[in-house]
Each structure stands twice: as structure tokens, then as C-alpha cells.
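Next up, sample data.

:::
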Amino acid sequence: MSPQTAAENPAFSGPAFARIPPWVRQKLSPLAIEKIQAVHEWVENECIPREQIMKAQLEGNRWKTQEVMHELRQKAKERGLFNLFLPNHFKESPGLTNLEYSCCAEIMGRCYWAAQTMNCHAPETGNIELLAKYCTPEQKKKWMQPLLDGTMMSAYSMTEPDVASSDATQIGIRITREGNEYVINGRKLYGNSLWNKELSFYILMGCSDPGNPDRWSRHSTLIVPCDTPGITQVRNLTIMGYDHAPEGHGEYLYENVRVPVENIILGEGRAFEIAQGRLGPGRIHHCMRLIGQCERAYELALLRCTDERKRPRGKLIGEFDSNIERVAQMRLELDAARLVVLNAADTMDLLGNKAGKRAIAQSKILVPELAARVIDECMQIYGGQGLTQHTPLPEMWTYARFVRVADGPDAAHRHQVGREEMKTAAEFRKRHQVYQERYKKFAEQYGEKYITFA
């Protein structure tokens, strides 16, 4: 679509496209335009109005997926809104690029669980892409297709309580081969709760070759069915006080858990290759959903600012200079963050996930921290009610704070970006030496004194 045609397209006049930058609109296919509009209508009309229904259906049975969730997932599937996240280079993909899906993900983020109704939620997205990328045809048929169909639920099990899991080479749960089986012993944190009986299997990363001199080749990835004997959920983990039912997070003990050798993914010692292939797109999804979440928080702040009932000292809350500046700063930061993430998605489409790793890391560093700060400001504008269940703001803030740690803490990503940047210094040094040499020649040419501070 040419720039002129894109600008004139009447489809872009609606709220679904209001925040999408012009350069991204020019790259959207007709299919993407259709899906973005459909996702917007779905979230606004089917999800957000059901938020309180979803909460009410948890009462009395917190670890059973709500009936309304099953109802919505079936409807979304019938409307062609399932699995939109899977990039178009996979044969199972519905046909969107990473950039196009990012526009959908932002809209999904406006309601915490909206992505789940479309089978576009973590950890399912990362797990499905992992299985699509690395599994055998037999494994795909047994484990991936049910996830795509929405008849199974999965979780990713990596973090451990006994080591610094931010350095994943320290992951220590032992995987030992005995004949035609792998035996697993150790402890894990996170991964969805076993108390929800719809959870079907874990994709588990563990240490299979601790003596390997190459620490990046010591680990393997296995598919572990949740009903395998020897897995015990010690307790559910709360996140900042929330139990995150009905999915939750767990603390797990593995005692002589046996799985068949055909459950290994890609082969022994390949876990880091798999993990990197899984995490790139997932980080972009998290970040775009966070931006959508922030946009909704921002809207709540604007409503509070212009609420005629709220007039401290005779003025609307939005008439105080400090709040006018708060609103302006939030708007600037959200629009800037969106550009960073969309750039990462576009880089992945054009050059691949590996080439886009710096842009992906930048997104993962910037967006969760910014989101927590923006939502915090919205709570402050909203006042005391903004800290209660009267608004979704506290849960939004908790999710943003969680994502600073999920998929790797931002400190690790800062370190990665910083190291890569340090490597560029050598070329800059050469360039600056040329500046100095040319300056010396010009000083001689003009008869000026040559001054150096080196």
C-alpha cells in the first residue's frame, strides 16, 4: 500500500488505528487491517464489559478456568481470532508479521485476560512458537496442535529457587538418562499452577551434562506431562499479593520424574538455543500488551482529571498545573515506547530474531519500567480509590512490575546492551582520530596553532 493510499484509507479513521504510527500503517496488509479492527471490536465489546463477570466466576472455585473464558475462546476461534501471534514464516501461521501482530497485542493489553480468549497469551505464545520451530512432526502433532486448537494448556519451567536463574547456566535441576527414559530431580519456581487441572504439560529446562566444559551445552529441554508421577506442587506463589488464579504460579518438587526419551526437544545440550528462539517474540508481545494496558490506565486518569464531581479547592483535578504536566509526560513516554517496540518487531521481520536482539532487549528494558511509572502516576491522579479494587490500576501496576523480572530481569538486558555498545568504541576511536588528523591539516592550512588535549 502506497503512503498516499494508506493515509486515505477510511479503515484508519477508527480508534483501532489511532495510535499506530503512519510508517507502520503503510506496512499493514489487508489481512492485518481486518484483524486489527476485529481484535479492537472483540476487546472493547466482548472482553472489557465482562471483566467483573470473570472475577465473579472465580468465587468459590479459584483454580478452575471460568466458564465465560471457555465461552469466549470458542467464539474467538469461530471468528478467526485464534493464534494471531504466530509469525507468517510458520506454515501454521494465520498470516501476520511480527509488526502487524504487535498492533493487535497492544489492543489485547487493554484487558488483562483478553489475549487468552484469542489463544495469544503467555506462556502459550512462546511455547507454541518453540514447538513450531524446534519439534519433530510427531511432537508437533502430539503437543503443538492441541495448543493451537485450544484443547490443551502448557507452561514453561525454567526458574529455580536454589540458584541465580538470571544466569541460566546455573540452572541445576538434574536430567539423567536411564535407558529409554529421562529422570528428573530438583526444584522449580513459576510455571502455571498444577491446581488448575486443565494444565497439560510443562516445557522444562534442566541440566543434563553438568561436566561439559562448554556451560552453554550442559542443558536440555523436555516435555513433561503434568500427570507424571513424582511432581509435587508445594504451594502456589503469590505475585505482589495476588494469587493470579486460575492459572497461578507454583513452587515444585521433582522426585524421580520419568519421561520417555522422545520427549526431548531438538536433542541433548540444546536448551539455550531453544530458549533464545522462544524469548525474542514473547518479549515483544509482553511489551505491546503493557503499552495497551498503560493506554487504558491513562484513559482512567483523564476521566478522573475531568470528573465534575471532583473539585479540590474549587478546580478540576486536571486544571492543576502539576497534573497537566503529568498527563503530557505520560503521553510523550507512551508514544516513544511504542516506537521502540514497533521498531524491534519490524527488525525481527526484516532481519530475523537474532539480528533484532538489541532492539528486543531495549524494549524489554524500557517498557516494563516505564509502564510501572505511568500506572503509578495514574493511581496518584486517581487518589485513594486508585489503590483499591474500584479500578484495575493496582493489578495493572503489579503486572508491569512482574514483567521487569519475567523473561529475564532488566539488569541482565541492560548488561547485554551495554556490552554490545562498548564493542562499538573501537570504530568511534578511529573516526575521532581522523577528525584530529584533519584538524591538524586545516590548522596548518589556515596558519592557526594546532591544539591537542590528548
Remarks:
- The first strand starts at residue 153 and ends at 157.
- The beta strands are 153-157, 174-178, 181-189, 199-207, 219-225, 231-236, 250-260.
- The CA atoms of residues 192 and 247 lie 6 Å apart.
- The first helix runs from residue 3 to 8.
